[in-house]
Amino acid sequence: MSVESNLKPIFAEVDNLKGNFIDRLRHAVEIPSVSGDETLRPSVVKMGEFLKSELERLGADEVQLKQLGTQPEPVAVKDLPLPPVVVSRFGKDPSKKTVLVYGHYDVQPAAKDDGWDTEPFELIEKDDKLLGRGSTDDKGPVIGWLNVLEAHKKAGIELPVNFITCFEGMEESGSIGLDKLIHDEADKFFKGVDVVCICDNYWLGTRKPVLTYGLRGVNYYQISIEGPSADLHSGIFGGIVHEPMTDLVKIMSQLVDGDGKILIPGVAEMVAPVTEKESKLYDDIDYDAGELAKATGAEEISIYSDKKDILMHRWRYPSLSLHGIEGAFSGAGAKTVIPAKVSGKFSIRTVPNITSEELTKFVVDYLKKKFDELHSPNKFSAGLVHDGDYWLSDPFNDAFTAAKEATKLVWGVEPDFIREGGSIPITITFEKELKTKAVLLPMGRGDDGAHSINEKLNLANYIGGIKTMSAYLHYLGK
Ligand SMILES: C[C@H](N)C(=O)N[C@@H](Cc1c[nH]cn1)C(=O)O
Ligand SMILES: [Zn+2]
Ligand SMILES: [Zn+2]
Question: Distance (Å, rounded) from C-alpha 415 to C-alpha 278?
Answer without folding.
Answer: 18
